[in-house]
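Hi team,

Filling in the usual template for the complex we talked about on Friday. All components are listed, including any nucleic acid strands or ligand strings, so the model treats them as one assembly.

SUBMITTER: L.P.
PURPOSE: interface mapping
COMPONENTS: two
RESIDUES: 760
SEQUENCES:
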Amino acid sequence: MTDAPKAKKQIVPKKNEMPAQDPVERSRNFNEVATGYSPETAKAEAARCLQCKNEPCRQGCPVEVDIPAFLKLAAEGDFDGAIAKIKEKNALPAVCGRVCPQESQCEKYCTLGKKHDPVGIGRVERFCADRELAGGVKVPGVAAPTGFKVAVVGSGPAGLTCAADLAKLGHKVTVFEALHVAGGVLMYGIPEFRLPKAVVQGEVENLKKLGVDIEVNSVVGKFATVDELMEGGGFDAVFIGTGAGLPYFMNIPGENLCGVYSANEFLTRTNLMKAYLFPNWDTPIKVGRKVAVLGGGNVAMDAARTALRLGAEESWIVYRRSDKELPARHEEVEHAHEEGVKFALLTSPTKIMGDENGVVQSMECLKYELGEPDASGRRSPVPIAGSEYVMDIDTVVVAIGQGPNPLVPRTTKGLEVNRKGNIVASTETGATSKPGVYAGGDVVTGAATVILAMGAGKVGARSIHDYLTAKKA
Amino acid sequence: MYKILEKEVFSPIIKLMVIDAPKVAKSCKAGQFIILRINDEGERIPLTIADYDREKGTITIVYQEVGKSTEQLGALEAGDYIKDFVGPLGEASHIEKFGTVLVVGGGVGIAPVHPIARSLKEAGNHVIGVIGSRTKELMFWEDKMREACSELHVTTDDGTYVRKGFVTDVMKEIIEARGKENINLVIAIGPQPMMRACSNLTKEYGLKTIVSLNALMVDGTGMCGCCRVSVGGKTKFVCVDGPEFDAHEVDWLELGRRGAYFRDQEQAAREKAKEKHTCQCGCGGGR
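RESULT (copied from the run log):
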């Protein structure tokens, strides 16, 4: 038999639409916005992949997923095969399929995307992962025990990824989490309507099946220091992935008034503590009628959209540059617009004013115009003299960024940190100034994305494995 | 899950529990706090550590029932479990040989001040204890405090026990009698109005005073900033920078206002819980 001549692949120019809840309806509930592909759509979308030789999409994936291979399997309807292929590299596919900025990663480099829509790689990934979570997860093979013990500090995306990779290599991993559930920012930060908490817990359960121990309610730096874990705790290496758990404030007058929240507090009350179910759940939150969210990143969009769902009549993004400079993902900005979030652009607050009880009442803002590009390449905002105006407001959410949580750096001897307090660690290896201690994710880079943290977790796991292997020899 | 090993009822609203929490007991120090959550729906409740036993692996907490969650906690018994218990959190008290230290506990604040008094005495200080409560029924741990301090003064606001007067009245007498130069440090823990009154008094004498603040908190690890308070004009987080601060630097008005922000919601939740309690077990809500 001779090979049939290779048929030229039929090009499908448009990405299959992601089904989603109606914007008006969803802006008042916490159910997931995007409802996910059907098997048929997932298959059809995967089949759009050209299976091109040079596989440019793969360079865009921080966790090195073999994208063409899993799409091929999905296109054939072999979703079990597809998810197994993804999970060779990615321990949290249901999370990544939802919150990765694919447009600036894998899909950015997609060959099809040069002339048409790129393949909806994230959407197919999400379908495969959800299907597996719903139907029961197959535990991937784990190497024979090495006898080494590794402590992972923090159970966010960096820590969970590092733990999964190390466990697969046969190391005994214990993850220490400060809060009462595992998941870090995936649980406290990213809202339910973008990343359902049941999905996160599903992924966490999968990790446990790999033999990873997760100890919640365990604040490293408090119940034990990193040094104590290594000396008395019997851990051979430590990975620190404690994230960007320190909220920044504007340092303007009135920021400690009642009704001013950091985005971390606003989102933690809502997501982790489920304040939207108060009083059936015990943690309260107040939003009032009109909310101003300061900042223009993904966290700001999450907070502004959350405010609407909590019952605010008006939710404003207050950002000092123009819409072109908004650091949030385009899709998030679009969703916010659709849901009715309002934008006060080229605007920045100068002070917050309160009533006789110290509760926020209004905010004075200054208008800006764009000047010359700054070091980041973005045009820097210049205040317009005399443009002050007052915005009546009930709640302010400060979402201008987060720094590294100081608990571990403060209590770990010999751990080098930079001026901002971030742990100094090699990008290539995750190695810190302290032997046997590795770090990655936001605690090293400052607040970034879930997938970059996962990439750093992966790098850390590889280096720890090399370190332990060398130790054995 | 964390087991309640012992429960002691000091008064209808002040209760003690000994919790099985070896991880916390191993490393905690005087002045630090824990956060507990009763069940899956529960809020995170910060409580200063009242005592610990490293060998038994236990932590003692004393709390006053002030809302739905603490009432729910108060309804639990020895042998029951609570969902989450994390700590030690916050910075430990600064303990060294200061000389003579005036240690003041008001109301439920007698509990957290106890291990501090004990540590100070162990460090070689002359510890003058003052404990006060609103009325006799709410007084507890007089014996433990007597042991922890070099001398102890007891008072009640209404005069139903030992003597009548606020802790500040007793403090003033002690400072006047001994001379302010013979007191090296004051530590005061209790309800905010009491700590504020102590602070105002010692400020007049120029006596350095440390207070342990009880701000609203969520995570307790410096992540959310809910517990921020202005101290000396700078914003501090009670959970990681405190809970102890220089009393004379604290913005008490701001602290009080921030602490009261959710009061209407807390009240509503409490009422609702009581209603539910009445109809479910038929005890008439009397518990």
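MY TAKE: The CA atoms of residues 128 and 264 of chain B lie 39 Å apart. Chain B touches chain A through 45 residues (CB under 8 Å).

Thanks, L.
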